[in-house]
Amino acid sequence: MSKKKLRSQEWYGRTGKDGFIYRSWMKNQGLPHHLFEGEKPVIGICNTWSEFTPCNAHFKELAESLKQGIWEAGGFPLEFPVMSLGECSIKPTAMLFRNLASMDVEESIRANPMDGVVLMCGCDKTTPSLVMGAASVDLPTMVISGGPMLVGRFKGRKIGTSDIWRLAEDFKMGRISQEEMIEAEAAMSRSRGSCAPMGTASTMAAMVESLGLSLPDNATIPAADSRRKVLAHMTGIRIVEMVKEDMKMSKILTRKAFENSIMVNAALGGSTNFILHLTAIAKRIGVEIDLTDFDHFSAKIPLIANVQPSGEYWVEDLFYAGGLPAVMREIESALHRDEITANGKTIGENISKAECYDRELIGTMEKPIKPDSGIAVLKGNLCPSGAVIKPSAATPGLLTHTGKAVVFETIDDFKAKVDDPNLDVDENSVLVLKNVGPKGYPGMPEVGNMTLPKKILEKGIKDMVRISDGRMSGTGFGTVVLHVSPESAIGGPLALVQDGDMIELNVPNRTLNLLISDEEFEKRKAAFKPLELPYDRGYVNLFLDRVNQAHDGVDFDFLQGSSGSEVKRDSH
Ligand code: FES
Ligand code: MG
């Protein structure tokens, strides 16, 4: 292979004053001069370690394994921190800051002397923010995820994040005490790693694996398993080779790779958040995908993995059953097998030897876990730019349903009214929550799977049709229509719904309609007043000004596309 001058030599390979400045302070870390002579590719390790992001708290240790691999392969690792978004800690929602973190990542990669980069991703938003930022620079890039937690045990039963929603109902109904809740907290989070079900974190880890940005098995090796460190070590070795091969992200992230990822997500029953993040990543790298692609490519694929919240088991179990390669092998006939991946092999080559060790965990195309999977994209007068629902996590009987709207104008209105015994609601009602979209909340929080009114729960009812312009946790379930676009805060039709209106959901036909006359619809539209959005400074002000709607991935309009990796001017 002809040797290309390394990008990092634009800094370290200079003579005189400039070279002195770029190298001298680096040497205060005890780094010998030969490291700067252009023989060893500089590999940035983009680390989202933070003690406020517990799901990524083991990343300092994991980074050491990466570094060993990079050194072994003749590279020069340099680790750097970026904004870390802990789903469980950040208010009002980590999604508000996904784009901010992606800007941090993009500028940190471009501005620094690195030839390739490894993205250390774990908790939900830490994956899309890093991949989005890196895609806008387009260096050779790999992802290593932190891995899922070991499954917890509480009172003899297995417990993971999906159980929060069940425990919350039990607590609301007085079936479980505060003391028991505290015990359950510790039982659930018994090991390092991200959420144990196929929530957004594992959905994102599977997304990068199916796109080809990581080594095989990245999605499922448990965080606490020593093989996770081996994977990091091997990732370190491979990224150095990728730099030598000049294998940039854009060579991997083709339209067909995105199609593969949509099909794999369907097979997994992955999070609805996948839609927003994959759309945003595609727009960064310049691949055209839209909501209809999610429906179209999902429709071919049944639910193959029996993992919560769509199925019964956990990501840890899925690893023992053969992991993501075994799931992908079952849908191989639908996948684009020739897509190249980070290890230099095709998807087809990567999964050719994968085996299923447990049919309870991994179904087949002929005998799937469930016939319905993936994501259904709805259209209608209530969501002209689309809305989404995850049929595999819904109640089959409610997928075709017409009911009377019970409207909550804001999240505060919902909290104040939902358990009011006088609320005019029954199990056939449709709960409508407004102003939880990208601008309305702001940040599009995971409140779409509203807990049911107490008086409904008391009847033993477990699900109702719920509609909002917000999101749902990847661990959530129910007949929940999400991402209604355009959102209510900017005058989307959801804003026009009133108590008592009839709403018709028909998932087989992919429709969602408000059953009022056109005349009444227009009258309400004319009377609409936008929500007051009381933010006049700082990042939130920028967010409100420039954020796109859900169907466009909730990215900032000015961040779509790439600025490449070149920086023309020096710092002194
Ligand atoms: Fe971090 Fe679930 S809260 S992965
Ligand atoms: Mg989540």
UniProtKB/TrEMBL annotation:
Annotated ranges, domain Dihydroxy-acid/6-phosphogluconate dehydratase C-terminal: 361-553
InterPro entries referenced in this protein's UniProt entry, alphabetically: Dihydro-acid_dehy_C, ILV_EDD_C, ILV_EDD_N, IlvD/EDD_N, Sugar_Degrad_Dehydratases
GO MF annotation terms: hydro-lyase activity; iron-sulfur cluster binding; metal ion binding
Domain Dihydroxy-acid/6-phosphogluconate dehydratase N-terminal stretches: 40-350
UniProt keyword annotations, A-Z: Iron, Iron-sulfur, Lyase, Metal-binding
Family: Belongs to the IlvD/Edd family.
Protein's UniProt name: Dihydroxy-acid dehydratase
